[in-house]
């Protein structure tokens, strides 16, 4: 599902709201999640999952085209862990 698909579904489920308001709401939610991760905070959506950041240390990698060694600096990467309710819904028989 893309962001525009999400907006269309929310608009269909909430005909009393203007589409531009729904677009603004979705953009604000994503921006707040991004801002929290930039600060190093953890974002938990109960029943869905939790977003956090994890550090990766510097390492020596390889250029797949040439095979030469390349220094890869340390960085922080986003991480998502699914919530219990979502895992159970996905694994229903």
TrEMBL record:
<dbReference type="GO" id="GO:0005694">
    <property type="term" value="C:chromosome"/>
</dbReference>
<dbReference type="GO" id="GO:0006355">
    <property type="term" value="P:regulation of DNA-templated transcription"/>
</dbReference>
<dbReference type="GO" id="GO:0030527">
    <property type="term" value="F:structural constituent of chromatin"/>
</dbReference>
<dbReference type="InterPro" id="IPR020816">
    <property type="entry name" value="Histone-like_DNA-bd_CS"/>
</dbReference>
<keyword id="KW-0805">Transcription regulation</keyword>
<dbReference type="GO" id="GO:0005829">
    <property type="term" value="C:cytosol"/>
</dbReference>
<keyword id="KW-0804">Transcription</keyword>
<protein>
    <recommendedName>
        <fullName>Integration host factor subunit beta</fullName>
    </recommendedName>
</protein>
<dbReference type="InterPro" id="IPR005685">
    <property type="entry name" value="IHF_beta"/>
</dbReference>
<dbReference type="InterPro" id="IPR010992">
    <property type="entry name" value="IHF-like_DNA-bd_dom_sf"/>
</dbReference>
<keyword id="KW-0238">DNA-binding</keyword>
<dbReference type="InterPro" id="IPR000119">
    <property type="entry name" value="Hist_DNA-bd"/>
</dbReference>
<comment type="subunit">
    <text>Heterodimer of an alpha and a beta chain.</text>
</comment>
<dbReference type="GO" id="GO:0006417">
    <property type="term" value="P:regulation of translation"/>
</dbReference>
<comment type="similarity">
    <text>Belongs to the bacterial histone-like protein family.</text>
</comment>
<dbReference type="GO" id="GO:0006310">
    <property type="term" value="P:DNA recombination"/>
</dbReference>
<dbReference type="Pfam" id="PF00216">
    <property type="entry name" value="Bac_DNA_binding"/>
</dbReference>
<keyword id="KW-0810">Translation regulation</keyword>
<dbReference type="GO" id="GO:0003677">
    <property type="term" value="F:DNA binding"/>
</dbReference>
<comment type="function">
    <text>This protein is one of the two subunits of integration host factor, a specific DNA-binding protein that functions in genetic recombination as well as in transcriptional and translational control.</text>
</comment>
<keyword id="KW-0233">DNA recombination</keyword>
């Amino acid at each position: 599902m893309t962001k525009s698909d999400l907006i269309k579904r929310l608009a269909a489920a909430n005909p009393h709201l203007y589409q531009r308001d729904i677009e603004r709401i979705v953009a604000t939610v994503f921006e707040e999640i991004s801002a929290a991760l930039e600060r190093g905070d953890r974002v938990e959506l109960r029943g869905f999952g939790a977003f956090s950041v994890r550090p990766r240390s510097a390492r020596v990698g390889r250029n797949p085209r040439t095979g030469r060694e390349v220094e890869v600096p340390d960085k922080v990467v986003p991480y998502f862990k699914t919530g219990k309710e979502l895992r159970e819904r996905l694994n229903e028989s």
